[in-house]
Write a structure and sequence with these properties.
Blueprint: H1 5-58, H2 60-67, E1 76-81, E2 87-92, H3 93-96, H4 107-111, E3 116-117, E4 123-130, E5 133-141, H5 144-191, H6 207-254, H7 261-292, E6 301-304, H8 305-315, H9 317-322, E7 326-330, E8 335-338, H10 340-356, E9 363-370, E10 374-381, H11 405-408, H12 415-425, E11 429-435, E12 439-447, H13 450-455
Helix pairs in contact: 1-2, 1-5, 5-6, 6-7, 7-12, 8-10, 10-12
């Protein structure tokens, strides 16, 4: 079994070349028959007409004697047939040695006054009358030596072309296969965990060059995913280790007998808080995993979006009331088709973040606009804002735009990642605009289905 592409390319070339040679030989043969034989026979007819003219002027015997000494006559065979179809004379090539023709097919047609042209060989026949006799002149050209030479040259050229073409194709095939060999070695390197590869392909613009560029792009994407995986594992480990450390430390502290009731209650409160934090982290991880695998239930239903957002704002009242934040809600009656439970998670995360990062006496504005085919919800706060260099990463898992807030603000950095995933599952979009110290605006766009809504 042929396994290497290099050998396959060579064999394919040989097969195509052989087919091309056979086809070209057949075409040359047809051309040879159609043009060369016809052209040569026309010359023989003119020669025959000259010979007949000389016969009529000087007589048969004298003309035959003269023609024996003519150089071009040595490549011809001359036959004369009488009215009964009998072969009465032969002269020409090889000193006039006897050479019978299978003349039964065409002699009668010549004697009846027609000119015969063979389609397979250099052979013509002409009728003529002399001394009250009807005769047939047949001329046959047999340049066997010359044709054999040309056939030999043609065959030699064909074999030489085949050999040279094979050698050149071998070099070209190696050039074509070289990028594939490089990619094979690069693949083996990637399998071992080394993503720092390079393909020295110059400026190739062909399909193999495009394939190599796509391979490099794929490698960079795999490298990015691997880095994200490692970062994700590191972040998960850190987020889990931090509450576990607190729980372990305060649990050991509770084992001491000499401890005030106030300290004991404070330690228990911390343990409970860290346990709840760890539980929320696990819940978010499981939710993200189910969203990624599309294993979470995703049933669409029609419901009032404005009422849903108002209920979430009311459920978060202890947080925004404690900070005396002004909540401005401008929501017209809106009915959408979506997954109710998942959008509850979206509004809870976005409004909860707005409350968390808006200082005391700040303001949060929630608006909604209906478009022809979509609904736009905006949540605007006057909080601490997000740095411009962090805007492109705030939806990444475990990313926290304000590095210092991790010390003072609770959160795992998974909330916005969950929000984006849910919005994408609804075939919607989410955008963010922010300036440090001025606030942040999240815009959520959800497709609307007015026809279906009217039916309900």
């Amino acid at each position: 079994m042929i396994k290497t592409l290099y050998v396959k390319v060579i064999l394919a070339y040989l097969a195509v070349t052989a087919l091309a040679l056979v086809t070209s030989a057949y075409a040359v043969a047809l051309s040879y028959q159609k043009y060369i034989i016809n052209s040569e026979n026309e010359k023989l007819i003119r020669n025959g007409q000259d010979i007949i003219r000389m016969y009529k002027e000087k007589g048969v015997e004298e003309v035959n004697f003269v023609m024996q000494g003519m150089p071009y006559f040595h490549t011809l065979l001359l036959h004369v047939y009488d009215q009964a179809g009998n072969h009465i004379y032969e002269g020409g090539r090889k000193g006039g040695e006897e050479h019978e023709l299978d003349s039964s097919e065409f002699i009668d047609s010549i004697l009846s006054g027609g000119i015969y042209r063979s389609s397979k060989q250099f052979l013509v026949g002409l009728p003529f009358d002399i001394e009250d006799r009807s005769l047939a002149l047949v001329l046959e050209s047999r340049p066997d030596d010359d044709l054999g030479y040309y056939d030999q040259v043609l065959n030699s050229m064909m074999w030489l072309a085949l050999v040279i073409g094979t050698l050149l194709m071998g070099i070209a095939a190696r050039y074509l296969v070289k990028p594939l060999l490089q990619m094979k070695r690069a693949t083996e390197s990637i399998a071992k965990g080394n993503f720092n590869i390079s393909l020295k392909l110059g400026n190739r613009k062909d399909e193999l060059g495009e394939l190599a560029q796509s391979f490099l792009y794929m490698t960079q994407e795999i490298k990015t995913l691997e880095n994200m995986r490692q970062e994700f594992v590191s972040n998960v480990s850190h987020e889990i280790q931090s509450p576990l450390t607190s729980i372990t430390g305060f649990s050991k502290a509770l084992q001491h007998q000499q401890m005030s009731e106030a300290d004991r209650n404070r330690f228990l409160t911390i343990i409970q808080s860290e346990s709840e934090r760890l539980s929320r982290l696990c819940d978010n991880l499981l939710r993200l995993a189910s969203l990624d695998n599309n294993s979470a239930p995703f049933s669409m239903e029609f419901y009032d979006l404005d009422e849903q957002i108002r209920e979430i704002v009311l459920s978060l009242e202890p947080q925004w009331s404690e900070k005396e934040i002004d909540i401005d809600i401008k929501l017209p009656a809106i009915r959408v088709q979506a997954n109710r439970d998942q959008l509850i998670q979206v509004w809870t995360n976005l409004i909860g973040n707005a409350i968390k990062f808006t200082p005391k006496d700040g303001k949060i504005t929630i608006t909604c606009k209906k478009r022809i085919d979509r609904v736009e919800i905006r949540i605007i706060d006057t909080g601490i804002g997000i740095a411009e260099e962090d805007l492109g990463r705030i939806f990444d898992r475990f990313f926290k735009s304000d590095r210092s807030r991790s010390k003072t603000k609770s959160g795992s950095g998974l909330g916005l990642a969950i929000v984006r995933k849910i919005i994408l599952l609804h075939k919607g979009f989410i955008f963010v605009k922010s300036k440090p110290g001025e606030g942040t605006m999240f815009t959520v766009i959800i497709p609307d289905h007015p026809k279906e809504r009217k039916d309900h």
